[in-house]
Amino acid sequence: MSLKLETVITPSILALAMLATRFHHFGSSVNLPDASLAVFFLLGLFGSWRWFPVFALLAGAIDYAAITWGGVGDYCVTPAYLFLLPTYAVMTAGGYFARADGALRLRRLPFVALAALASTVVAFVISNGSFYFFSEYFASLSLADYVARTAKYFTPYLAYALLYIAAGVAVVKLVRAVRASIAAA
């Protein structure tokens, strides 16, 4: 049974992206922002749902390593942490929904962008809403106050995900163009 090269390379590159960026959510002067949302979207767009459990476990393993050995705090590890599964499922489903033969044709790119935007917004609501309701940190804080406090995180959450998704789509488009040029030569 022969595997297409892309069925191994795409998940491998996505796993490397997650490994390289997951330790710090918004990044810093020495760390790239977390690419996990984009990884799950691109997994749906170019990969397969069968990889979802592998990537969900990888995310958890990276978080465990970051907290246990990497000096990252465990503030976000609460009962709400389990809601990362539906958060990442929404991203993967968004990529899968945007997927089509020729998904990278110019006329399809706005649809891919819209799916990425909608998925990321829903993912933000799930991850932040679950943190409000289930982390037990905000018992005395109204939902309106919580939304006002976390609104500042929405822009970087959205921007980093969309930038990584755009970069991933651009790289795949470039690789496919180069492969087509080589095949035509």
How is this structure best described in words?
This protein has 185 residues and is an all-alpha fold. The chain contains six helices and no strands. Helix 1 packs antiparallel against helix 2, helix 2 crosses helix 4 and helix 2 crosses helix 6. The longest helix is centred in the last third of the chain and has 42 residues. The radius of gyration is 18 Å and the shape is globular. The mean pLDDT is 87.
- Assembly state here? single chain
The average pLDDT score comes to: 87
Helix content: 55-70%
Q: What class, by secondary structure content?
A: mainly alpha
Question: Can you write the helix and strand succession as a string?
Answer: HHHHHH
Beta-strand residue percentage? under 5%
* Sheet with the most strands, sense and barrel status: none
CA-based gyration radius: 18 Å
Number of strands: 0
Number of discrete helical segments: 6
Shape: globular
- Could you name the ranges where pLDDT drops below 50 across 5 or more consecutive residues? none
